[in-house]
Specification:
The protein is of the alpha/beta class. Helices cover 37% and strands 22% of the residues. The chain is built from 16 helices and 17 strands. Strand 12 and strand 13 form a beta hairpin. Helix 1 packs antiparallel against helix 2 and helix 2 packs across helix 5.
């Protein structure tokens, strides 16, 4: 009975609270031992408004925004907001939103799902909409090469209902290729704009699946995302069902035009950075496929604020800081490019761990184009921390940054030091996954995060 699994999960959740543990995955892990199909049993009564978001970058922001759209539209949403995106984390979210007898007290569900774990949950959730953001090299020691993980995702979608929507980022040739031969309804979103492209060392060359020729690009937006085509057989980026154009970026937010069918909307958001145009575009597209009211969607987007650690703006001791998760080369470079666009003096605190959830291999730090960023940005000081602080400091040194302005410190000392040395600079705190958790715990203990 599902009630047994829920009861066990709730008891574990109470224990986690008493002991001060996070409790984002353990309740689900223990409950699934008692009932391996608990997720399916809990969510089965929910027939509409079920969304899965997967991909390498952007899934936390995109899923958080979709959940916000649904909540703003009057739905009660179950959502793994903390980012625990494997089967155990999804089960935990459902347990917390269910009664002791296993009745789910929600009428919408949005789950961020780790791309390597999609096959374990997609059939149990039976989503109405699946959003796939992009694929970049990320934790190769855990995932393997891109083609391998893309094929796994495509296989996981092969049994989807014909009534389900699969919403794909057309600008990523890896993601777009998933739409071929699926029985579900496939739609594409992407950018059509003359916005300036910045150099990236994280370019994943994709070959045409028809003739094997390397794709060429009319426009690159970041990484390998852009308007591509095969010069040999003519295969090209799919036609865009949802299109972003007239993009304006600033430190205070984003504004762009969204085109869908015969409609054009003006979108405004507090999020910043070009890559968030993709996240916003995907979220609005999903909302429209769920038949949410257009004007309600746009209002919800305009009043949405980032999830902790995703371009989060805070003040610590009266000094401005921005926190953004970095976990792979393209995410790191996208953050650096955004900071460059601000055209402000900066102090950086970079936190790198190598726990299992981060990926043990941190050699990706050498794939980030730090040299170009440091040659153009006004960076006064860099402090590194975390389990691999020395590796990060070495990478900064070899990028040509003055070693007199590099410091390696434990987290609590690093935060205090960067506040002490900051005058008018903007503080940019860039942690990877488990380092972000450590940072949030420390900042909350100091009253910096409410």
């Amino acid at each position: 009975m599902k009630g047994l699994g829920v009861a066990i999960g709730k008891l574990v959740n109470i224990s986690c609270k008493i002991t001060g543990k996070g409790g984002t995955s353990l309740p689900g892990k223990i409950a699934l031992m008692a009932d391996d199909h608990l997720i399916k049993k809990l969510i089965e009564p929910l027939k509409e408004n079920k969304v899965i978001v997967t991909g390498t970058n952007g899934k936390t922001t995109t899923s958080g925004l979709i959940a916000h759209l649904l909540s703003y539209s009057g739905r009660k949403v179950v959502h793994n907001r903390e980012g625990a995106n494997m089967k155990t984390g999804i089960a935990t979210s459902l347990i917390k939103s269910s009664s002791l007898t296993g009745n789910l007290d929600r009428d919408a569900a949005v789950f961020e799902v780790d791309e390597a774990n999609l096959s374990f949950v997609v059939n149990e959730i039976n989503p109405n909409v699946i959003v796939i953001t992009n694929f970049f090299r990320d934790q190769l020691d855990r995932f393997g090469e891109l083609d391998l993980i893309v094929n796994k995702v495509k296989k996981a979608l092969s049994d989807l209902s014909k009534d389900s929507f699969v919403l794909l980022n057309a600008d990523d040739p890896f993601t777009a290729s998933i739409g071929e031969d699926l029985e579900a309804k496939v739609l594409y979103y992407g950018i059509e704009d003359d916005i300036k492209s910045l150099k990236s060392s994280s370019f994943e060359q994709k070959f045409c699946p028809v003739c094997g020729t390397k794709y060429e690009y009319k426009k690159i937006y970041y990484g390998h995302l852009g308007n591509y085509y095969c010069p040999n057989c003519g295969k090209k980026r799919p036609s865009l069902d949802f299109r972003a154009s007239d993009i304006f970026l600033s430190e205070d937010g984003i504004k762009f035009k969204l085109s869908y069918k015969d409609k054009i909307f003006t979108v405004k958001s507090n999020l910043v950075g070009l890559y968030n145009v993709y996240n916003i575009l995907a979220s609005i597209s999903a909302g429209m496929l769920l038949n949410l009211d257009d004007s309600t969607i746009l209002k919800a987007v305009e009043n949405y604020w980032p999830i902790e650690g995703r371009l989060q703006k805070i003040q610590i001791r009266g000094k401005k800081a921005i926190i953004n998760l970095i976990k792979n080369p393209v995410g790191f470079e996208s953050t650096l490019n955004m900071l460059l666009q601000f055209d402000k003096p900066l102090n950086l605190l970079i936190l790198i761990n190598d726990n299992y959830a981060d990926g043990r291999d941190v050699s990706w730090l050498w794939d980030v184009n730090l040299e170009e960023f440091l040659s153009k940005a006004k960076v006064n000081h860099i402090i590194t921390s975390g389990l691999r602080a020395e590796d990060m400091a070495l990478r900064v040194k070899y990028a040509g940054f003055d070693t007199e302005r590099i410091k390696i410190m434990p987290l609590n000392e690093a935060v205090k030091e960067i506040l002490d040395i900051t005058k008018e600079e903007l503080i940019a705190i860039l942690p990877n996954y488990t380092a972000l958790q450590d940072l949030n715990k420390y900042l909350k203990s100091q009253g910096a995060l409410k």
